[in-house]
Amino acid sequence: MTDIDTRTLEREMKKGSAELIILSIVESRARHGYEISKLIETRSQGQLKFHVASLYPLLYRLEERQWLQGRWVEKAGQRRRRFYSLTPEGRRVLARQRETWETFVQSMRLITSSSHA
Amino acid sequence: MPDWTHHLRQRLTHLDLDGGREAEIVEELSQHLDERYEELRRHGSSEAEACRVAMDELVDPDSLVEHMRPLRQAQTAESPTPGMPTGSLWADVGTDLRHAMRGLRNQLTFSVVAIFTLALGIGANCAIFALADATLLRALPLPEAEQLVMMSESSTNSSSGAVSATNLNDWQARSQSLQSVAGFVPNVGSMVLANPDGAAQTVPRQWVTAGIFDVLGIQPLVGRTFKPEDDKAERNVVVLSEAFWRSRFNADPGIVGNDLRLDGEMFNVLGVVPEQAQMIGRASMWAMIPILSASNEDRSDRFLRVVGRLRADADLKAASTDMAVVAAGLARDFPEVNQGLGIAIEPLQAALFGTDLRQTAMLFLAVVGFVLLICCANVANLLLARANARRREFAIRAALGANRWRVMRQMLVESLILALLGGALGLLLGALILQIAPNLIPQDLLPGGVELHFDLRVLGFCLLASVLVGLLFGIGPAWAATRQAPAAAIGSETRGSSGRGGKMRNLLVVAEVATAVVLLFGAGLLLRTLLAMQYVDRGYRAGETLTLLVDPIGDRYPTDASLLQFFDEIERQVLASGNVKQLAWSSALPMGTPGGTIGNAAFDVEGAAAQAKGQQAVADYQIVSPGYLSALDIRVLSGREFSDTDRADSVPVCMVNQTFVDTHLGGITPLGARIAIRTSTAPDAKVTVREIVGVSAPVMARATEIDAAPKIYVPLAQRPTDDIFLLVQPKVGSASALIPQVRAAIARVDTEQLVTVSDLMTLEEIAADATSRHRFRAVLVLAFASLALLLAMVGVFGILAWSVQQRVRDFGVRMAVGATANDVLRLVLRGALVLTVSSLLIGLLLAVPMGRWMASVLYGVSPFDPLTLAMVMLVLALTTLLATLVPALKAARVHPVEAMRGY
For the residues A21-41, what does the mean pLDDT come to? Predict the structure, then answer.
């Protein structure tokens, strides 16, 4: 993968699988927006970055579709923060998308692996 | 730290987001930018650089707004552009369905209320439709039922006269249009079935001619039905009903061919017929009367009702013409009996169901139809309120390219889903009602063999009703919601927007209340009818009186003297059994003849002007024993009651009622006047001249009689008859407690089981039975009217609560400039008053035709009864007040400052 331009990868990944990425990040527990953007960056080892301009519209859209639920949480001495968690519907969508994605990746690997070359 | 707020707001401003939502987004994005800024600073960026990078990320790689835009358009993105190929219509409808389901789920309370309201309306309609279907629409459950007709002899007096066996045979022989005819005796009598164990059983039996089942097209389940050979041989044969065969003979096919001992004679069982046979009478078995041997002497003996089956190529009109020719021929050939008689012919279905039942079904249909309309209005009201709240959403969608039809369509899909869900629940409700309905419907209302079915027709009706209802209550709100120009809707805040929707909602509520007024008025009239029937002074006291029909079999007591002796013996035995205060005999009972067939007689008054032929005066004719009038507290106005001195060999006497005196005596002093009585209109009927010895007060003997009919009483001793009622009154306790001892007393006289004892009822039970259909009607309509009232009041409450909520700011301003809570209260109440009064006025206007339309089912109450009107007004005023109270008090409690801040 080293020869792929990082920026191209980022654009393609975002286009095709941004939803899957976001849903996976909040799967284990509710997270706020900044946390989500940092986690995407660290887990992809810096390959993928979601900035404010693309992250939030996506979050809001997922919320409108009722895949995510955003909730303001207040903690003593801190500013309130909006945490996003998976709805039951979101959990179902995630499972579906993950399966599709894995099938896709697997077929891509089968097609493009060097042994067939 | 930089303040991002201003910057963010500027970027979001032309998205025109809701104020609260925009603030949230700004807050959340600011936080993100803060954290990003701090992170950059920690990694060594200068303040200016960190600020620049964060801002760059806000606009780069694509603009924030570019990404945000689809948010507001998320729903309209799927809308078709006008002129798109229809291939995508289903996809669009699918989208609409999804959206609608989501919308309804999100507003669960609204949906549940709407669905239940509709279920009530549709359920009631389903059940009543099943009744109307069985009585008005569906053909009789007989093969080619449309070819079946009921025929009777018509004269100037009556259009439904009975037919003699001889004439029936001639009709069959002379008509061109009839394939077959047969007769039956309308009254279902009974026969005593002797059991080996000695306990006789009384079985309902109807006399029919041999062809009856062939004409009706009823096939036997087992064995066969009657054949012409049975008639020729004059055999004693019976056919059993399915239910009786199952209950009495355990559905044993072996019973066919066996003999039953009925009324002391042996009858051969030919077969078993299905329940449809009960349509002509609720009998357990049918016994054949031979008619082929009937001669000219029998021509005046009219006792049959006639059913005919038309030839396939004949219709009712052709048959009428044909039968008119037959009647003319018979009048020419046998003028002394058939002069002036025509033949009336009507479809069997119309004849069996009768106008009363058809009117009842129509009445119920109208009533539940109104209830459904009120349900619709209520749901439309809910939808309007919701549509009002969603006007901005619709307007934005319209601005983004969704055309009006598209938005309306989505609303209609929502309405239809509500209606269908309501319909499904209503279907369950309807099925439930039909489960319990047969127990509530008075037995004499529906002919036997006719059942209420819950089948595909009802299902289809329910579905159709649901769809129509969905369109009906959906289209108004959808129209109202989409009519405002988008710019105006988006620009306006929710607070000032009562607008058109408000007016429409007011109209709906007025319509609802007006409908409720009409229904309540109808229910009130029926209730007053019922009360009038139950509490009207009918001229007799039922008290504690046991009545039973005693019917000694034909040949057992061949002479009048032996019959009278038999009655005397029973009298002695019953009196000896103890606790009997009084005892009397009578050939008819007040309120005891639902069909109104109290015996009657033609008569001439001596000294009065002679009557034209065929115009013979007719009066009710009742045979009674001495003591009958005093037992029932019927007053003797002048002269005397019958006594034991009125014997067979003494001067023939009679009593008449006051109505007879007023109608027929024309100034002749009644006491001592003589009348010539014939018991039938036949010229050869026996004539007895009787002297009037007493005048009684009139008795209203039929349920719907307002003025008593003229009546002649004749003493039993001078005119002995079998088939007579015994009346027994106890000294103490209830009349029904006498049943065992009276039965036992009769059994002591009738040791051979040759006397039919049936119809053991108290006079009060008989009266209750006679008014049962009126009670059924009143109770059902009252139940529906109450439901309508409740729904209408929910509507009133809804509209007032809503308008108060809309006007809180207005009230706040008024109170801020000095209005008191009372002023505000008055303001709301005035609104409610205007609403109520206008509804009442419209309702009253509609109630007038309703009353007129119902006149035929009313008794003892005027169709415009002022008392009923006043009660309806009162009930409505009180309930409206109740519905108004909560919203009004809420308005009065408005706090000016909060009102103006909060909205």
Answer: 90
Determine, for residues A54 and B61 on separate chains, whether the beta-carbon distance falls below 8 Å. yes
Both B610 and B722 in a single domain? yes
d(CA B796, CA B510): 9
> What burial letters (b/e) apply to B680-707, b meaning 16+ CB within 10 Å?
ebbeeeeebebebbbbbbbbbbbbbbee
Same domain membership, residue B437 and residue B328: no
Contact B395, B490 (CB under 8 A): yes
Residues 6+ apart with CB under 8 A from B499: B388, B484
A4: closest CA of chain B, how far (Å): 19
Name which of B544, B649, B567, B666 is nearest B610 in CA terms: B666
pLDDT band at B231 (very low <50, low <70, confident <90, very high): very high
- Three-state SS sequence of A56-117: HHHHHHHHHCCCEEEEEECCCCCCCEEEEEECHHHHHHHHHHHHHHHHHHHHHHHHHCHHHC
Q: Which two tokens stand for residue A43?
A: 């887990």
Closest CA to B814 of B888, B889, B892, B896: B896
**Residue B536 falls inside a structural domain:** no
**One domain for residues B715 and B655:** yes
Q: How far is A70 from chain B (nearest CA, A)?
A: 11
Find out whether A86 and A65 touch, Cβ atoms under 8 Å. no
Nearest to residue B210, comparing CAs of B236, B185, B183, B187?
B183
The answer to whether residue B839 is domain-embedded is no
Residues B18, B67 within the same domain: yes
The domain boundary, picked from B763, B781, B804, lies at B763
Torsion angles phi and psi, residue B258, rounded to 5? -80, 165
**Nearest residue on chain B to A58, alpha-carbon basis:** B67
Q: Where are the domains of chain A?
A: 6-108
Cβ proximity of B660 and B603 under 8 Å: no
Shortest Cα distance, chain A CAs vs residue B27, angstroms: 9
Residue-range definition of the domain harbouring residue B649: 546-763
Cα dihedral sign, A5-A11-A16-A19:
positive
Q: Where are the alpha helices (DSSP H) in B636-762?
A: 658-660, 739-749
B255 and B396, same domain (yes or no)? no
User: Does the residue B417 lie in any domain?
Assistant: yes
Identify the H or E element spanning B488. helix B486-491
Q: How many structural domains is chain B composed of? A: 4
Q: What is the CATH number of domain A6-108?
A: 1.10.10.10
Q: What residues of chain B lie within 8 A of the CB of A32, using their CB?
A: 31
- Each residue of B31-69: pLDDT tens digit? 889 988 999 999 888 988 898 888 888 765 444 555 555
The torsion of the CA quartet B848, B854, B860, B865, rounded to 10 degrees, works out to -10
* Nearest-angstrom CA–CA distance, B834 and B556: 78
Clarify whether residues B745 and B684 are in a common domain: yes
Residue B321 lies in a domain: yes
pLDDT digit string (tens) for B519-538?
899 899 988 888 888 888 88
Cβ within 8 Å of A, B 40-99: 57-64, 67-68, 70-71, 74
ipTM field:
0.81
Higher confidence at residue B68 or residue B301? Answer: B301
Q: Are residues B426 and B285 in the same domain?
A: no
Cβ of B64 and A52 within 8 Å?
yes
| Residue where a domain stops, chosen among B763, B791, B822 | B763
Whether A64 sits inside 8 A of B58 (CB atoms) is no
- What lies within 8 Å, CB to CB, of B262 at 6+ separation is B191, B192, B193, B194, B203, B205, B238, B287
In angstroms, the CA A98 to CA A20 distance is 7
Alpha carbons B204 and B724: distance in angstroms, whole number: 17
B35–A60 C-beta distance less than 8 A:
no
**Secondary structure (3-state) at B577:** coil
Which residues is B729 bridged to in the sheet?
Answer: B582
